[in-house]
Amino acid sequence: MELSTSGDLGAGFVRVRDGSHVGRARRLVREMVEKAELGTELAERAALVATELSTNLSTHARGGELHVRVRDEGVDLVSVDLGPGMRDLERAFRDGYSTAGTGGTGLGAVRRLSDACDCESAAGGTVLVASLVRHRTGETPTVTLARSAGLVSPHPGEVSSGDGFFVRRERGRTVGAVVDGLGHGALASSERERALEVMSALEESLSPSDHLRAIHGETTRSGGLAASVVAIEPERERLVFAGVGNVSGRVLYPDGESASLVTLGGILGRAPFHVKEMERPWRPGAVVVLHSDGITTRWQPKDYRWSARRDPAVLAGVLMRDYRRPRDDASVLVLRDA
Fold first, then answer.
1. pTM above 0.90, yes or no
2. What CATH number does the domain located at 148-336 have?
3. Can you give the pLDDT at residue 105?
4. Facing residues of 116 across strands?
């Protein structure tokens, strides 16, 4: 079984505004890799990549966010910025290239130190995913393309988020969810944490509506939250979805078609409570996107036909970059075909 949530040690976040935040990013990454017991070599290499990425954010991009996710075999660093973008990606990754009068070794060092890199850059900013795996003597390191990616960004005035995500894979079935505690701050964060704990304790075979009922029963009446849950069942060529509140969902198919996943109005933890499941076909190469209302719904699935071939963190980062509401918690979860 594979289980991950935004509350795990396996997910972290640093908002980088200036050079004073570079050390914070480096320390966070090193500590996360060490806690995961992935070895000193990987911890130090990942810390160097975090230093280069966060320095790039503070120097060239006028700030941004560094997201960290630890996987069984390594760690992924996801840099999201709202800078001017890079017109020539290949040139930007060469040593000696700089647009700010620096030595120009930053992105070149990121490529050398990482085992895989993926990047999407436009006039509105850049998303860069650097993947690093443990190097063992006598073995050739290999990077397995992630099957899911969740990014969470707190309200600008808060240190913790009311948004969160959940992913569980077992016996060929994937269950994914995004939860959004009402408002932001400590109470919303507490509701999010409790919802993730409840889902983690449930049996794998339960339906999306069962997950929502369990959350509803454990949510305090003083708070409340919205949530959407999807179960992907490739062997049955279907996905099952249920949602309550303002957590949106879409399925992107490789031929450019898409399907909306419709939620019901309401608030988990408050009466009345209604839930209804819907099914959509599941096809090889399909991608599911769930996101809170911290991301607007104006994005067009047809613009992201490339998503099935790329690290899911790229699409999550692009949506966070281009459609983030500036004064709210935000979260995006992307699930792709195994």
1. yes
2. 3.60.40.10
3. 53
4. 131
